[in-house]
């Protein structure tokens, strides 16, 4: 492996446990390195910091994988995968057959996420270095998880930054016409090649469980409802009426199908509409609980200011539809809108709506999406339960 030497003082973040090295932190000429090759990292003074793979074309030039003194090997990756999967299956969600089995850097496997949906496993690779290891990844997933179907979803736009194509397909087995899974007592149909993400949004599962204590006998509005996951949690938590809104006809059809499967079709109504358009026509104070869980508005830091305005207006309109004393569940999956900016946005939305907000619960992503304290980039989801008065 070729050595990579850092500029003076750039090792501090790495010694704290961060796993990315940016191109401007490297003193070597990046053109000397083969994209995707393994390298050994050294501080300016020659202290070994670990090994990882390099992509000279990317702003994140090196992603650390192994600690100092450890070389990449089949046994090492087998151990990482086995421990990550066992942590979910035996510790975090021991009664569940659905979970995120691998969450990239937080599990020591940068560029790789793996989701289990019963006997179907879906994985996604987003970096060149991990892409070159894909045959080994497939082999180890088959060996450890023993799925009937193994699917790859390499269609995340971030792959283009690594020079990788966007593609998806089946690595092993055959997808059945319908594949249903149970997530915390709710049945969902999973379409691993057609749905968003890898099939389901598992990062909100703990938050949807928490919703149930706030909805009994209430009228609930679920904005950006997608497949109805929040709506179903509300209905099964005893909500009197649930209205789900999404602009996707496929999402609305899937939500209705999920509601039927779970026997809550009488209390759930799904409406195809653009959310801002729906809110403009909604009656004031029509709902007891409003859930705002939009897709990421902020893809880059340069778009943050404009996106923050969008989040503010969205939450302002949601508050207008909420009864005094009602519950606003407001979420953001935009990493660039950090916790401080998220709170600032909510304050501005409340002021514009003439309301006050009391924080009931400040929540984040599910336990199977663990946050490394040394790496803020692993923390992206904010989910606040707020009393509006």
UniProtKB/TrEMBL annotation:
The keyword Methyltransferase applies. The lineage of its organism: Bacteria, Pseudomonadati, Thermodesulfobacteriota, Syntrophobacteria, Syntrophobacterales. PANTHER family: RIBOSOMAL RNA LARGE SUBUNIT METHYLTRANSFERASE, S-ADENOSYLMETHIONINE-DEPENDENT METHYLTRANSFERASE DOMAIN-CONTAINING PROTEIN. Residues 4-65 form the RlmI-like PUA domain. Its main location: cytoplasm. Belongs to the methyltransferase superfamily. RlmI family. GO terms for cellular component: cytoplasm. Residues 176-335 form the S-adenosylmethionine-dependent methyltransferase domain. CDD domains: AdoMet_MTases, PUA_RlmI, RlmI_M_like. GO terms for molecular function: methyltransferase activity; RNA binding. This is SAM-dependent methyltransferase. PROSITE patterns: PUA. It is found in: Cytoplasm. The keyword Nucleus does not apply. GO terms for biological process: methylation. Keywords: Cytoplasm, Methyltransferase, S-adenosyl-L-methionine, Transferase.
């Amino acid at each position: 492996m070729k050595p990579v030497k850092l500029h003076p003082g750039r090792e501090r973040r790495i010694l704290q446990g961060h796993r990315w090295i940016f191109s401007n932190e490297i003193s070597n000429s990046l053109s000397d390195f083969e994209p995707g090759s393994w390298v050994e990292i050294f501080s300016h003074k020659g202290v070994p910091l670990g090994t990882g793979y390099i992509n000279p074309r990317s702003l994140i030039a090196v992603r650390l994988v192994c600690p100092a003194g450890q070389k990449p090997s089949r046994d090492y990756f087998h151990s990482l995968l086995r421990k990550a999967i066992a942590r979910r299956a035996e510790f975090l969600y021991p009664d569940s057959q659905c979970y995120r089995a691998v969450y990239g850097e937080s599990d020591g496997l940068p560029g790789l996420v793996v989701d289990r949906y019963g006997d179907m496993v879906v994985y996604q690779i987003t970096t060149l270095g991990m892409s070159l290891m894909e045959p080994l990844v497939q082999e180890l997933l088959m060996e450890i998880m023993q799925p009937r179907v193994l699917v790859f979803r390499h269609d995340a736009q971030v792959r283009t930054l690594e020079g990788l194509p966007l593609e998806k397909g089946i690595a092993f087995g055959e997808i059945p016409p319908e594949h249903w899974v149970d997530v915390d007592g709710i049945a969902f149909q999973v379409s691993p090649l057609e749905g968003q993400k890898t099939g389901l949004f598992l990062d909100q599962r703990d938050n949807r469980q928490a919703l149930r204590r706030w909805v009994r006998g209430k009228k609930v509005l679920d904005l950006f409802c997608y497949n109805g996951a929040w709506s179903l949690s509300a209905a099964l938590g005893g909500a009197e009426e649930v209205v789900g809104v999404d602009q996707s006809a496929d999402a609305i059809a899937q939500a209705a199908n999920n509601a039927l499967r779970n026997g809550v079709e009488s209390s759930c109504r799904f409406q195809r509409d653009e959310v801002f358009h729906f809110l403009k026509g909604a009656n004031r104070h029509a709902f007891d609980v409003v859930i705002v869980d939009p897709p990421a508005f902020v893809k880059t830091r340069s778009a943050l200011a404009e996106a923050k305005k969008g989040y503010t207006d969205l939450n302002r309109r949601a508050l207008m539809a909420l009864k005094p004393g009602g519950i606003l569940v407001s979420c953001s999956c935009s990493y660039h809108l950090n916790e401080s900016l998220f709170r600032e946005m909510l304050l501005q939305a409340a002021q514009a709506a003439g309301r006050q907000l009391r924080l009931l619960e400040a929540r984040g992503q599910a336990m199977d999406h663990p946050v490394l304290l040394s790496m803020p980039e692993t923390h992206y989801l904010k989910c606040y339960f707020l009393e509006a008065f």
